[in-house]
């Protein structure tokens, strides 16, 4: 069984903490800039430690806690941004960088959820010789065996970058583009992600119109 590397999603979690630190205090409930990083960092260490010890149930559970923490932080900050915009208390420059930080966080948060949920998570995907079943129908899964061999994808499995690409498309095109969604839970998550992205972009557009 080939382990899927955990450093890409770990870096994504740290990046979310960094983006959170760049937000103004009004969007974090007055919490210090280092709060999310201080929560995320030890959880990441625990995930990596238990994964290295092959204690995958515990590692997976802590991963759910980690994803939940950053998701709640994201939703809270988006809600606070909506309040500031509707009350006309946010400056154009602060709106611009806050919206950009939240939009990027949205991509990273939901890429982590897709990566952690799909086909039972990274550990379960690693137990199979080739990825043939999951919540998403990646293009490589539709190839015939001969086509996979010819393309050098005979043992193809999705990794974090595939879910990051999916999340990026969802936040930009508001659709999964080339990856059909098969599972109901995935459809719900993608609707939530698209809604958050739409809200952030609508706030930017609305504020830009007011400025003009």
Question: What key attributes describe this structure?
Answer:
mainly alpha, single chain, 0% strand, 8 helices, 212 residues
Describe the structure in your own words:
It contains eight helices and no strands. By secondary structure, the protein is an all-alpha fold. The chain has one domain. It is globular and about 60 Å long. It starts with 6 loop residues before the first helix and ends with a helix. The model has no long low-confidence stretch (mean pLDDT 88).
State Rg: 19 Å
Task: Please count the helical segments.
Answer: 8
By helix and strand content, what is the structural category?
Answer: mainly alpha
State the separation between the terminal residues, measured CA to CA: 58 Å
Total domain modules:
1
The total count of strands amounts to: 0
**Poorly predicted parts:** none
Shape: globular
Strand residue content: under 5%
The run of helices and strands is: HHHHHHHH
The chain-level mean pLDDT equals 88
Quaternary structure classification: single chain
Question: Could you estimate the helical fraction of the residues in percent?
Answer: 55-70%
Biggest β-sheet description: none
